[in-house]
């Protein structure tokens, strides 16, 4: 998940009005229908909460007796809800978009129920409840609060004006966007810069490649240097990975991969720009005007988010507060409260017109919240199996990423994490391989640093291999098509990634993880 960080698939409804009112986004509906649509989505959320509370509340009374789920005794059938939900996310918007648009919350709740109810029956409500509650309260809530804050604050920042999209200007914008992605997230950077990038190139006959490389660099590769950049890295932070670990350990891989892709773009854009010189001129629909950055009040709020995360990493008061039988550390509660307050403050200090110009709606983050509630629930039995290692049902996968001498095969970690992140959400994919590598953050940051780097790079970089591999991918793709850019289809996009990214990843894998 990269950006809004984390959801593998967005829908065209986020950025383009649908010709049918029935499938229009909420903000395009008449006032009377808005209430009905919002009511249906609130019922989906309430249904999920009711399911969780009914099954999990009894766990707090017996918290002292709870033990970990017996992963070594669990078969692969326990992974079915997790696999089913990820497959639904990957195929729903493509194969049955109308059904998915109206019922994705119900689908996620259904898969979550298929995970939680059998766990409660097989191992008892206390054990199942503790396992699921611990995941939701210690990981999911912090995860979704950060995504909500980055999405909300960046949505109030507007880059207005227009410049001419020459090869050097385009390369400069891509470089700025890639650097920005690790500060405000791939979704935030993508949403701020995609429209200025489209305006700069809207008079060029060849401009689809600009959007494709924008997805490569801004929506994916650029978010690899901090936990703010991409959801899988924040999941790692929640699991104990230091905030600046990725900065210190992935800068070479990011510099090489991003630099090589940027060089390829510049060479290609120069060729196409020269070819356009002999073609009939297209009148620029948005003539060059001075570029201005609006919504500056949101910049210190973004700094505040970073400060809150650094505070939780350095301030360890040793105080825990029990909530429903789960101990929550004080520094994490304070961090989440500050981040949430900053997001709400952004709504007060931002101009509504700036958000409207950015195409800002609540639907993307609402979808992410519902789907990830299901993902974090369904992954609980998978994590239990992975923790069993060679004694668990996923022992063949353990063997696949382990060399003959028992050491981790970092190249296999890089490619397997990346291959799954290309089609499924990268945050749960990262978590699966993080656990597969032992799940001990201290060990992974030190003795197994190369393994953690391979997992992190694979999850972040290879989300660009398809336009369904990351939420901002599809959002950028949808905006470009709506603005009249002749974007390639699903397999056409993969032809671009196969020609540019796969060779780059082959070289990077050999240099850094062999």
Tally the helices.
Answer: 19
Largest sheet: 2 strands, antiparallel
Content of β-strand: under 5%
Following the backbone from N to C, one meets helices and strands in this order, namely: HHHHEHHHHEHEEHHHHHHHHHH
Q: What would you call the shape?
A: globular
- Order of neighbouring strands in the sheet with most strands: 1-2
Unreliable parts:
1-31, 52-67
Termini gap? 26 Å
Briefly summarize what is shown.
With 514 residues, the protein is mainly alpha-helical. Helices cover 65% and strands 4% of the residues.
Can you describe what's shown?
The chain has 514 residues and is mainly alpha-helical. It has one domain. Helix content is 65%, strand content 4%. The chain has 19 helices and 4 strands. It has a two-stranded antiparallel ribbon. A two-stranded antiparallel ribbon has the order 3-4. A hairpin with a 2-residue loop joins strand 3 and strand 4. Helix 2 runs antiparallel to helix 12, helix 3 runs parallel beside helix 12 and helix 8 crosses helix 19. It is globular, with a radius of gyration of 22 Å. The N terminus is likely disordered.
């Amino acid at each position: 998940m990269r950006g809004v960080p984390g959801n593998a698939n967005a829908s065209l409804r986020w950025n383009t009005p649908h010709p049918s009112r029935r499938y229009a986004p909420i903000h395009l509906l008449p006032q009377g229908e808005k209430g009905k649509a919002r009511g249906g989505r609130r019922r989906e959320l309430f249904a999920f909460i009711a399911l969780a509370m009914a099954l999990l509340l009894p766990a707090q009374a017996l918290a002292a007796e709870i033990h970990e789920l017996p992963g070594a005794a669990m078969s692969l059938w326990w992974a079915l809800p997790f696999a089913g939900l990820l497959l639904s996310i990957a195929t729903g918007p493509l194969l049955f978009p109308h059904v998915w648009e109206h019922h994705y919350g119900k689908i996620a709740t259904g898969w979550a129920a298929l995970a939680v109810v059998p766990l409660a029956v097989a191992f008892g409500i206390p054990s199942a409840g503790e396992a699921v509650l611990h995941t939701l309260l210690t990981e999911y809530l912090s995860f979704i609060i950060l995504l909500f804050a980055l999405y909300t604050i960046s949505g109030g920042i507007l880059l207005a004006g227009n410049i001419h999209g020459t090869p050097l200007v385009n390369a400069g914008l891509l470089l700025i966007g890639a650097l920005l992605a690790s500060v405000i997230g791939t979704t935030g950077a993508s949403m701020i810069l995609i429209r200025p990038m489209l305006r700069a190139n809207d008079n060029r006959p060849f401009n689809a490649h600009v959007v494709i490389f924008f997805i490569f660099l801004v929506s994916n590769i650029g978010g690899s240097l901090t936990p703010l950049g991409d959801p899988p890295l924040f999941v790692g932070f929640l699991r104990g990975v230091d905030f600046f670990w990725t900065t210190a350990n992935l800068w070479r891989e990011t510099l090489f991969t991003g630099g090589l892709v940027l060089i390829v773009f510049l060479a290609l854009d120069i060729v196409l720009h020269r070819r356009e010189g002999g073609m009939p001129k297209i009148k620029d629909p948005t003539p060059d005007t001075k570029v201005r950055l609006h919504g500056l009040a949101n910049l210190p709020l973004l700094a505040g988010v970073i400060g809150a995360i650094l505070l939780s990493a350095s301030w360890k008061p040793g105080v825990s507060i029990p909530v429903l039988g789960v101990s929550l550390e004080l520094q994490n509660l304070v961090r989440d409260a500050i981040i949430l307050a900053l997001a709400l403050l952004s709504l007060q200090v931002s101009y509504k017109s700036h958000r409207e110009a950015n195409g800002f709606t609540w639907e993307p983050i609402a979808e992410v919240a519902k789907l990830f509630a299901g993902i974090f629930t369904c992954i609980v039995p998978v994590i239990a199996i992975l923790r069993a290692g060679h004694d668990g049902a996923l022992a063949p996968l353990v063997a696949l990423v382990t060399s003959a001498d028992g050491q981790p095969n970092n190249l296999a970690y890089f490619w397997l994490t990346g291959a799954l992140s290309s089609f499924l959400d990268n945050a749960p994919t990262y978590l699966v391989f993080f656990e597969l590598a032992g799940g001990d953050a201290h060990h992974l940051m030190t003795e197994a640093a190369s393994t953690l780097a391979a997992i992190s790079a694979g999850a972040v970089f290879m989300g660009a291999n398809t336009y369904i591999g990351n939420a901002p991918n599809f959002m950028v793709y949808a905006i470009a098509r709506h603005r009249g850019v002749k974007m390639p289809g699903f397999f056409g996009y993969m032809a671009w990634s196969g020609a540019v990214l796969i060779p780059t990843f082959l070289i990077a894998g050999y240099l850094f993880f062999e």
